[in-house]
Each structure stands twice: as C-alpha cells, then as structure tokens.
Amino acid sequence: MAEYQGYEIIKNPVTGKWEVFWKGKKVEGEFVREAEAEEWIDDQFPSHRF
C-alpha cells in the first residue's frame, strides 16, 4: 500500500492490479502500474498553469 496526495494506492492480490481509494472507498481501479494510479490522481487536481 502506498499513500499519494491523500489517496491510498493498493495492489489487489487477486487481480494484481492497482486500485485507488479515498477515505477507505474505492474510487478507481484496475491500473497495471502503480505510476498509472498516481497519474490518475494527479489528473483529479485542477492545473494552475498559465
């Protein structure tokens, strides 16, 4: 299990895929790589670039 930006990223032992949880509730899943889960989390935050 890893924590990233307040989310938990957990590897499902049955499927071998990474799932994203927020406050104990699954919000997204089925990522092949942990880095893909982190990218999904990053996409949830608005960009403040000009």
- What is the H/E string? EEEEH
Distance between the termini: 34 Å
How would you describe the oligomerization state of the chains in this entry? single chain
Estimated structural class:
alpha+beta
Q: Portion of residues in helices?
A: 10-25%
Uncertain segments are none
Which descriptor suits the 3D outline? globular
Summarize the structure.
This protein is of the alpha+beta class. The chain has one helix spanning 34-43; strands at residues 2-4, 7-11, 18-22, 25-31.
Task: Characterize the structure shown.
The protein is of the alpha+beta class and 50 residues long. It has one domain (2-43). It has one helix at residues 34-43, and strands at residues 2-4, 7-11, 18-22, 25-31. It has a four-stranded antiparallel sheet, covered by helices on one side. Strand 2 (7-11) and strand 3 (18-22) form a beta hairpin. The radius of gyration is 11 Å and the shape is globular. The protein starts with a strand and ends in a 7-residue tail after the last helix. The mean pLDDT is 90.
